[in-house]
Amino acid sequence: MDNYFRLIVGILSTVVVVGCKGHVEKGTYGYDKQFLESHQHVIHLYENKGKSQLMVLPYYQGRVMTSTAKGEQGNSYGWVNYDLISSGDFEKHINVFGGEDRFWIGPEGGQYSIFFKKDTDFTFENWFTPKEIDTEAFDVVNQSDKSVLFHKKMKLVNYKGFAFDIDVNREVTIFNNQEIKTDLEIDLSDDVDCVGYQSFNEIINTGEEAWSKDTGLLSVWILGMFMPSDNTTVILPYKNELVLNTSYFGEVPPGRLTKTDKHVTYKGNGTARFKLGLSPRNIIPYVGSYDADTKMLTIVNYTFKGDSTYVNSIWKLQDEPYKGDVVNSYNDGPLDNGDQLGPFYELESSSSAKELTPGASIKHIHKTYHFEGKFEELNKIAIKLLGKDLKSL
Questions:
Q1: Which of 13, 31, 68, 167 has its CA 20 to 30 A from that of 363?
Q2: Chain centroid, CA 253 distance in Å
């Protein structure tokens, strides 16, 4: 009888908790909102009468953790590392918290890397993400319902031993539907829900010495982690003869890529680890993905003005350290020991690198859009922006 009584009390307690907080399912924006608010300070950005929402975390370098186009009951688009965040611990080499738009600085590898100490071998044991872009908070300068501005001072030392004194300015802004239509020059029917936002990112040389190619340059690097599925296809459009960099983590497993004369595609399912890169000569400043299960199209647009100087992040001493990629896409998968960071897939963009005099800066804008709704309407957007008919996937 006592056990029966305790069972009834437990059920009633659960009902009360669910009733107070509102029932939310994992995978929804409301679930991620409750989770993140229980562990972190969260800044919320809203548009379109609250249907379009973002969560931005100052203690995670002002990253956009996730977004939705359909309010709290809608799908949550960003990948969130629940285990790491809830643990409260920091990992040794990198803290893969997740997030759709996180701020990093390149290069990762090579003789000008800021992830390896001077004269160390380019192995995982010697690879460390600088704490300034991994575990340290960004300061909130100003915020509203639509945008939030961050600032951070940094001192980074590269593989050559050159020290960079930097000011970082980062502003995240959410768009309304009219701004999305104007920016992308598209029509939006009532059968499509959408959310769009951008991060404006600036690094300023605040030191007394100019940056030069001989001592190393830096770039703004924005990475977005998204939820994988067996029916998600990553779409990388390109122009000119394809120069596809597949050498980051060894060659791509056979059968993983599909190449045409205009696109590289792969299944963004988080089951095999590889990374792709496109050079400046190939760039059409859009990349994207399509999830056939949820009928959700993701579009990423980024700053590209025809520059050719991009840092090279491959883990080795390089003959051409400034012949790197503009855009990258990473598919997560098991490591050699069987462990896995995710699963997730990434869409990334980088700024060009410049020899900055004291006080000069590099600016880079990275925009993310999610569209969810009728296939026919999503296909129109994919054809216009990515040049890809989704029926062919």
A1: 68
A2: 23
